[in-house]
Amino acid sequence: MRRRTFYAIVSLALLSWAGLTFHLFLQRPQGKVHRSSKLNDQLDLLELELQKQLRSNEELLIKLRSLKKKNIAQEKDSKSEEIIKESNSTSVKPSPIIGVLVFSCNRITIKRNLDQLLKYRPSKEQFPIVVSQDCGHEPTTKVIQSYGDQLTLIRQPDQSDIPLVGKEKKFKGYYKIARHYGWALNKTFHGFNYDTMIIVEDDLDISPDFFEYFLALYPILKSDLTLWCISAWNDNGKNGMVAENPEILHRSDFFPGLGWMLTKDLWLELQNKWPKAFWDDWIRQPAQRKERACIRPEISRTKTFGKVGVSNGLFYEKHLKFIRLNDKFVPFTQKDLSYLKKDNYDVEFVKLVYGTPAVTVQQLTKGSLSHSNPVRVTYTSKDTFKKAAKALGIMDDFKSGVPRTGYRGVVSFLYKRRWVYLAPTAEWKGYDSTWS
Ligand SMILES: *[C@@H]1O[C@H](CO)[C@@H](O)[C@H](O)[C@H]1NC(C)=O
Ligand SMILES: *[C@@H]1O[C@H](CO)[C@@H](O)[C@H](O)[C@H]1NC(C)=O
After folding, report:
1. How many cofactors are bound and how (predicted)?
2. Ligand 1 centroid, distance to 84 Cα (angstroms)
């Protein structure tokens, strides 16, 4: 930037000098000199102009000197960083534009979500919000429109009925959701041409560092091709089961959703085979996931507040209600997060998990261990996993063979303030997609 300003100033000075010389040349009388009064007037005018030019050149010179001084001072502050920047001015990347797509239907409580998005959004230009509404529910439309130009409202045009027969009928809601998602993702990636998008639903509370989190992980999502999403959600992130450190982040083979970021490249991959229903289970299948992982936080950056919806309220009462929402701002963009890249992460992860002493579930539940260090619990089958998960209070289901929050088969969580790794044996060969 500074270098560019420097060049701009120098070119400006040169240009005005060239302009002036040219001007003088043109005005020089040809042939015989008749010092008429008209010529005298012109010479006076030129003199004035010349003085003006000299003055502005002097001002430019002063500005240039002060810039140079500032540059030297900053170079002293962060020498190595400056050298990198100076040697490669194109490597100073502009901030990315990340669209925020909010899904809406008929809940006027979307206000609660939108208020928070606007409260924590650091920049309207960097994080344009698009609310996509299905269902055509007028009161909800009114709420969204009340935000004026703070966001953009788009409406899913196809309100036709989806004909279903027999048992499928009761899943109509899921068909409508998949139709809405497909349309809105197409609209924002192609119509608005966003390169990256954060997906949010209308019933989510968000944490103060929600945008900071996604912004900091954006370069990692773009550069590590073994990642396909950044999620704000920890499926096992209940109160009392998470570490008291909002900085901790993990890799996860389980697609968590609930506030997540994807790139256009992923959408181009999915757009032509988008399913008619149950898109989140579909996306978790091996044909879509292709062994890619997501980043998830230890303490969730989102939390659902709505009970009424397509998925049943019981799940909210029994589980979602207890998820801990982070309330501290972590300046993630100032941290080195490269440890999350697969090449750095996996070796350390395997060393950590399998270097941890193995114990039994009974030892943990009875509290018969004499220390509070991390431990590992081994599972060898779907059933032993489920039994251990139930006893230790974590989610016990699988999607396409992957347990919630699992990474390389390992589920990490806190049990009675102790890190526990529920892990397969070290010879693990991959997920068995028949486990459910
Ligand atoms: C300069 O920046 C570009 C783009 O970020 C990068 O590809 C290139 O390797 C950099 N060159 C040097 C010499 O650092
Ligand atoms: C998205 O748009 C593309 C190109 O127009 C189309 O081929 C694709 O079927 C659309 N996908 C969805 C889910 O609407």
Report:
1. The cofactor is mostly bound to the substrate.
2. 9
For the full predicted model, state whether its pTM sits above 0.70: yes
Longest dimension (CA), the chain: 114
Closest-approaching ligand to the CA atom of 275: 2
Q: What stretch of H or E contains 46?
A: helix 37-77
Total domains present in the chain: 3
- Same domain for 59 and 82? yes
Q: Residue 273 Cα, ligand 2 centroid: separation in angstroms?
A: 9
State the number of CA atoms in the 13 A half-sphere of 351 facing the CB: 5
Is residue 365 in some structural domain?
yes
Distances, alpha carbon 378 to alpha carbons 345, 371, 383, 432, in Å = 21, 19, 12, 16
Answer yes or no: do 275 and 162 share one domain.
yes
Q: Amino acid identity of 22?
A: F
Q: Whose CA is nearest to atom 3 of ligand 1?
A: 91
Does one domain contain both 282 and 228? yes
User: What's the Cα-to-Cα distance from 267 to each of 99, 186, 273, 274, rounded to whole Å?
Assistant: 14, 8, 10, 9
Residue of minimum CA distance from atom 11 in ligand 1: 88
CA of 182 to the centre of ligand 2 (A): 8
Q: Which atom number of ligand 2 is nearest to the Cα of residue 190?
A: 2
For 24-70, write each residue's pLDDT tens digit.
Answer: 555 544 444 455 677 777 777 777 777 777 777 777 777 777 777 66
Q: Which domain holds residue 72?
A: 2-90
Active-site residue identified among 134, 265, 280, 396? 280
Which numbered ligand comes closest to the C-alpha of 84? 1
